[in-house]
Structures are given as C-alpha cells and as structure tokens.
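Sanity check

After download, print the first record. It should look like this:
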Amino acid sequence: MKHETFAERFTRLLDASGLTLGHIADVADVSYQAVQGWKTGSVPRGAARQAKVAAALGVTAAELMYGEKGPEEPRQLLRPIAVWSNEEELEADRYIFLPALEVKLSAGEGGVVWHVDEKGQRQAFTRKWAQRHCIDPECAATMVVQGSSMEPRLQDGDSIVVDYCQNTNIIDGKVYAIALDGEVFVKRLFKEFGGVRIVSDNPDKARYPDRSVPADKMAYLKVIGRVVAVSGGV
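Expected structure tokens:
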C-alpha cells in the first residue's frame, strides 16, 4: 500500500472539507503562501497550529499529521519546569542540568569537531524526567535543530537532547546527530550492508533524498550521539 504523504493527506482533507486555502490560512494565522506550501511538501509548525488546522478539517491532529495510526514514536516533549535565573535557585536533588553541545567546522581539514560547553547556560530538567527517558546527565547535552529535513517529527528551532555516549553501536531506525562531509545533520539511520542509510523524515524526497554510506566509507561518518528527546514551540 502506497504511503500517503502529508501533502497528499492535506490536499485530500481540504478537498473533502470544501474549505479554501484562504480560510485555512486565517485559521492557522499564516500566509496564503504558507498554506500553499503544505500542498507541496512543507508542514504546519507547532502543535497548537496543527490542532487548529485539524479541527477546521474535521480530523484530529494525529490524523492530519500522520494518518490514522499516528507516529510510531510520539514526540517526547520536555515540559517547562520553572522560571529561574541561576542554578542555585533550583534544588539539586530534584533537577539535572544539561549543557549545550557545540558543534563546529574545524579549520584547515574541513572536518567537524564538537565539545560540551560546560561554562555556558545549561537547561534544567527534573530527575524524574531523566530517569523516565533513561538519560544519563553525564552523557547528555542539548542542540538546536536547523532546517526542515526532519519535519514533521523535528521542527526548525526545536531543542533536542543528544546522548553522546550512544555514538558507537547504531540502533536501526533511531535518530542521531551526525557529521558527514564537513556538515552536521540530525537524521534517522538504518544499517545497510555494513554501512548505513541516512534518511530524512520529511516526505519530500526530491528535496531530501536518502543517502547511503557504504562500509568502505564509514570512516567519513562521525556519529555524535543519539537524539533521545525533543522540545518544540507552538
């Protein structure tokens, strides 16, 4: 059975509803051009906007974004915990503090280097949340997603938690932060004949085609760590 892309599903639901693109644009509080883009490969960003569009079309947000079955891996949202200006204001026995993961292009050879910024601002999460998601504070850091290649699962600007201790044994079908050809990506990895296949969640394969790294080229692929949670805006 052919997989229905978001663009196909949105177009089908829009036609069935009898609504116009202009009406949906008003409901979602976006431009007419943005809604046109939903028919060709982009997706509405933010849970609140997705819910508004879905309600206008007479379906649930899960049906709109993923079809009737919904996503195989629901987004693990990081809940806001408290307003604080420094770590001393929070109880150390209740919270963990995750630093930012800094990834930069190295000078000269064009490779990629990364380090954990222990001196910068850290994000706080409850220890219960970390235990529930099996996150070791000694191995985790945050990154910000850039681009739309992993939509609808990961949106541009989402903050993700990367477990950089999980960077040797690839788990088939999981999402990883990787470096390849002097660039940093967040992609889904699949094992393939001793190498890996790099896959974007965005269904627009014309813009985001799969890419294979054969076994004899694996030395050029650097796995930074596995993405274990994501926090997005609305």
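If your output differs, re-run the checksum step. Summary of this record's structure: The domain at 87-231 is CATH 2.10.109.10 (Umud Fragment, subunit A).
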